[in-house]
Design brief:
Structural class: alpha+beta
Largest sheet: 4 strands, antiparallel
Order of helices and strands: HHEHEEEEEHE
Helix content: 25-40%
Shape: globular
Number of domains: 1
């Protein structure tokens, strides 16, 4: 059996990445909305989504719409956000639906990750039978940080 003795930087470069990108590129959160959120639950989730935008801003994190350039969208059907495209602070779009859904979002640990995990933790807290949440960062990755 041979052992690959390349450094992390060499492996990353072979993929056209920096070493820190190799460690974060696949960082993903998963959630499943198992039943529609009730109107009361969704109202609380939307209010928290708005509050988190302000909390993120206070921490120097800009939350944009799913395309990374427009305003965040918080509607009666879904929440659609991303990080800011300026300065490479966006990655994959985060969409939380009021209705049954199976979804994931790779944040690459970019700043908007704090918003994503905080909102998922809040949704799980107020409607534990409606949503299941996991992360390849482990159970401790999904917690309210804003």
């Amino acid at each position: 059996m041979t052992t690959d003795k390349r450094t992390l930087n060499e492996v990353a470069e072979s993929f056209g990445l920096r070493s820190e990108e190799l460690l974060t590129e696949g960082y993903t959160h998963y959630w499943k909305v198992k039943r529609d959120f009730t109107p009361q639950e969704w109202s609380k989730i939307k209010a928290e989504a708005h509050r988190l935008i302000d909390a993120a801003k206070a921490d120097g994190i800009t939350i944009k719409g799913g395309d990374g350039t427009s305003a965040p969208e918080i509607s009666d059907k879904e929440i659609w956000i991303n990080g800011d495209d300026k300065g490479d602070k966006s990655h994959e779009t985060f969409t939380l639906s009021k209705s049954k859904d199976d979804n994931f979002c790779k944040t690459a640990r970019k700043p908007y990750d704090a918003y994503v995990v905080s909102l998922l933790a809040f949704a799980k807290k107020i409607a534990p039978d409606a949503i299941s949440v996991s992360s390849n960062g482990g159970p401790s990755a999904i917690q309210k940080v804003l």
